[in-house]
Every structure is written in structure tokens, then in C-alpha cells.
Amino acid sequence: MLLKNILPLIFIFYAHYSAAQKTIFSNGFENKQFDSSQLQTITGNWRVEGVDDLRIAPAEKGYRYVLCSGGKDYVGKQMIRLVIDLPDSLKAKKIKLSFSYYILADASGIKIEAEFYQKEIKDRRSAPLWVNFLHRAKGRWKYYKQTLNIPAKANSAYITFFGLESSGVKDRIVCFDNIVISALE
Fold first, then answer.
1. Quick one: CA torsion of 37, 34, 164, 147, rounded to 10 degrees?
2. 60, 100 Cβ separation under 8 angstroms
3. Which end of the chain has fewer surrounding CB within 10 Å, N or C?
4. Whole-model pTM?
5. So what's the architecture of 22-184 in CATH?
6. Tens of pLDDT along 99-151?
7. Could you count the other beta carbons within 10 Å of the beta carbon of residue 5?
8. What angle do CA 27, 32, 36 make, to 5 degrees?
9. For 107, what's the count of Cα atoms within 13 Å in the CB-facing half-sphere?
10. If pLDDT is split at 50, 70 and 90, which confidence band does 92 have?
11. Where in the chain are the domains?
12. What is the dihedral of CA 111, 54, 49, 109, to 10 degrees?
């Protein structure tokens, strides 16, 4: 009897929550590539690889292709930036960032940064830089999510993913998958 009364409430809550989110960006890399107009390589060797080639478990939702940094031919800093436009029609006050990541090396220093800008004012931040280091999870997929406040007048966001910085050690790879940015109203 209690279950019969609770199920409709759960459905209403879920429908309301789903309607309050609008996906701005989503990529599970199953098309075996990434759009370089939105995901811009800053430094390093970024590419899409199959989990079978990497000899790792499939990513979240069984995805078979992932965005990877590093590799045998690159030593140094690894950075890729996701550029997001926040249109004026978007009435959101927050965005939710979520993704899965997998580390193929026993190392630390993997982080993510977010910056909000006004496109009309070149190179001027609307908010302080937000930085978060990712927990080590060598050898397994780890899910990450974070809600960020959109500052007043900001209409663009840069989300920068940092791979492992190598100093003479090759084959240090971090993989990202199912990157989703949603507007929360």
C-alpha cells in the first residue's frame, strides 16, 4: 500500500528534475572522434581510443571508445579544453558537470579547471578560477560530478581537463568518457 502511494511521487519528482536540466554538451566518443571546435587540444597528445586496444573495462554505460591523453610518443603536460557557450536564453544559474575517468598509471596531479567568461570582454574572467584534483583510481572507472554556479553576465565557460604530466616517463594515460554539461534551472 505504501509503495503504491510513493511510486507516483517518485515519478513526479523525476519528471520535474529531468525537465529542470538542459543538456548543453554531451559526448561519449562512440563516434570514434571528438569535435575540435568544442574540445580544443592545448598541449599533449589527445585522441579517442577503444577500450579493447587499451585493455581496460568498458566505460560507463558500456561505452567502447574514450578520450585519452598521453601515450608512447608524448612526454610533458597534457591539457584539453572544452569550450561551452551559455546563451542568453538559458535561464540557468548553475551547470552540472559529469564524466567518468580511468587512470592507467599510478600517479597524481590529474585535475579539472573551470572558468567563466564574458565573450564580449576578451580574456576577462567573470569569476575566480575553480580547480579540483581528481582522486586516484588506477585500474578502474570512477564517476565524477560537480555543480558550478554561473556568475552574473557570464556567457561562456572553459572546462579544462589535465592529463598526467610526465617527466621522462612514457605511457602515462588518463581516459575520460561520457562528458556531460547540463544547465540547472
1. 70
2. yes
3. N
4. 0.80
5. Sandwich (2.60)
6. 999 987 766 678 899 999 887 765 566 666 889 988 877 788 999 999 999 88
7. 8
8. 65
9. 20
10. confident
11. 22-184
12. 10
